[in-house]
């Protein structure tokens, strides 16, 4: 009998400890932070596997397949926006075009739980059309409420053939 009470007491203490877990509080405006980038170069392509940390306090990050009407049109059809700072032969410039991607919906639209996730985006460039050997990405994201995150800059990304 004592053993049963002892085991029951341990489970009660574990339950109390679990229920008192503090969860982090993040703002409703998303935050991004560069993690790392991996590159590969083939005869025809240059590829980047771009990783960043995403935090969003209300969990409304990512776009669903049906999110194609207003307000998710034109440039807001995409929720990842990046400018490219490119270097070729020691000449650095911001390219006149950027990168746009759709991050898929992470939680259901009804969920109000925070999100902390590492996001990976695979980026492909035709080697013949992208002659740059070194770049940096200056990027931000939008959540479904169209809150714009902070702008972050990647480390230098080098394409090594």
**Overall mean pLDDT score?**
87
Radius of gyration, CA atoms, in whole angstroms:
22 Å
Structural class: mainly beta
Proportion in β-strands: 35-45%
Order of helices and strands: HEEEEEEEE
Which fold name corresponds to the CATH topology? Immunoglobulin-like
Number of helices: 1
Helical fraction:
10-25%
Please identify the oligomeric state.
single chain
What would the principal axes of the Cα set say about the shape?
elongated
Q: Count the strands?
A: 8
Please give the largest β-sheet.
Answer: 5 strands, antiparallel
Task: List unreliable stretches of 5+ residues.
Answer: none
User: Which architecture name does CATH use?
Assistant: Sandwich
Number of domains: 1
Please write the CATH class name.
Mainly Beta
Q: State the distance separating the first and last CA atoms.
A: 71 Å
Your description of this structure?
- The protein is mainly beta and 161 residues long.
- The protein has a single domain (24-158), classed as Sandwich (Immunoglobulin-like), CATH 2.60.40.
- The protein is 11% helix and 42% strand.
- The protein has one helix at residues 2-19, and strands spanning 31-41, 45-56, 80-88, 91-101, 115-126, 134-141, 152-153, 157-158.
- Strand 3 and strand 4 form a beta hairpin.
Attribute tags:
about 160 residues, mainly beta, Immunoglobulin-like, five-stranded antiparallel sheet, three-stranded antiparallel sheet, about 40% strand
SSE blueprint:
Elements: H1 2-19, E1 31-41, E2 45-56, E3 80-88, E4 91-101, E5 115-126, E6 134-141, E7 152-153, E8 157-158
Overview in brief:
The protein is 11% helix and 42% strand. The chain is built from 1 helix and 8 strands, in the order αββββββββ.
């Amino acid at each position: 009998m004592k053993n049963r009470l002892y085991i029951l007491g341990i489970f009660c203490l574990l339950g109390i400890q679990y229920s008192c877990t503090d969860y982090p509080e993040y703002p409703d405006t998303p935050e991004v932070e560069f993690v790392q980038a991996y590159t590969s170069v083939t005869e025809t392509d240059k590829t980047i596997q771009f990783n960043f940390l995403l935090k969003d306090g209300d969990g409304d990050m990512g776009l669903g397949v049906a999110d194609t009407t207003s307000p998710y049109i034109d440039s807001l059809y995409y929720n990842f926006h990046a400018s490219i700072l490119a270097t070729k032969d020691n000449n650095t410039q911001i390219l006149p075009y950027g990168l746009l991607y759709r991050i898929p919906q992470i939680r259901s639209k009804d969920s109000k739980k925070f999100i902390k996730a590492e996001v990976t985006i695979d980026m492909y460039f035709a080697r013949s059309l992208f002659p740059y050997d070194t770049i940096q990405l200056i990027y931000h994201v939008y959540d479904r409420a169209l809150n714009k995150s902070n702008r972050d800059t990647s480390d230098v990304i080098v394409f090594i053939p």
